[in-house]
Amino acid sequence: MTDDDRDLVRGCLDGDAVSLRTLVDRYQGLLFGLCYRMVGHRQDAEDLVQDVFLRAFRSLHRWDASRPLKPWLAKIAVNCCRTALTNRSRKPVPTEFLDQLSDDGPQSRNKRGPAEDFAEDLQLALETLREEYRTCFVMYHQQELSLAEISEALGCPEGTIKTWLYRARRELAELLQQRGVQLTR
Amino acid sequence: MSCSQIQKQMQSLLFEQRRMNSTDTELNDHLAGCSECQAEWQRLQTLAVAIHDWRASVPAIDIADRVVAEIVRHQPFGNDAAANRELRPLLRGGSLPVSTGSHAGLSSSGARTSRRALFAALTGLAALLGVTAMLDRPSPPQRHPDVQSVANSSRSEPRAALEIAQGPDVRTFVSGVGSAYLAFVQDTAGVVNSATTLALPDSLRSTDAASNDASALPWLEGVGRGWEPIQKSVGTMIDTFLNPTPADDPSAT
Description:
The complex is a heterodimer. Chain A is mostly helical.
């Protein structure tokens, strides 16, 4: 938590337009990355980011200024993603969904290099993980939140987060191996 | 070290950027002699590379304009209209309307509620004053001439009735009549005009309709013309009760 964040929040609550814009600019990347990795779909992730900011600004007056802002926002994002994933599980998954993981569409799958394949394989493997493991993994490895920040966001002890991360990595490593991903460099 | 401990050590080394130290010598020794941990080490290294690529593959995004527009549209600062108005310049052209309808509605509703509360308070006060004035007012002697005439005689049924009439039971009765009248007036959309004058809708004043037949309820004769007629009606009713005529007294037949 920086004083800068605190000032921005205070500015937002006072109706300062610049503070609002700065806050959105600062955290949109983090929240989008988190949502994108959680739901695996760009358009859904953009909508979720919008929803996250909206909820956050509605509750901004309730934010405890003695605590860091980033985990607070991440927690809202995780909750939004959970709701979206629950809703999605009640609907049929479109067959083209896996192809949409890449913005380039299905035609370009054969044109991609090993780096893109690795990323896609990992994303697909990630979606088979338990939700807690996936959330921890994305927060730690995608958003680079510390264990303490993840613990704050998810409301779990750091020991639990470490265990979830450990198990998530082991399962992902096995899933990648099952998908035939080999270390090539 | 067990395989489980070694595998935790591997994860720390690969994913938590921990520097090599003396325990890693132990790790290397273990890997040299354990094929299962060697396989795990290979899998985790593959994962580390995949994570690197996966992290970099998040598409760029700039949806700040859209997010800010949505925030302003939903007025996140609730009733703080000034704060919401301040946010309008964020929008390109500032053309999105910031509705104040809900706030105006709330204000209007609040004023209506206040007026209703004031009306209810005044009505209650009026009822209280009216009933109190009616109870404290001494009954005119001519109001109960027959009762007064028998009051001086030896104790009789009418005298006992007079005592009852001056006691708390009749006061409660009269008070109850007043309250019932008020409730009746309010329930039928009557309007309390002042502390001592009550009004009913014209339709209810009519005695033509069977449902409003005043003869069936004598004390209702004064309804709509103030407290004085009510007092008279109630007095008449008490007189009738104390001195029933043969026609009124079923036991006389």
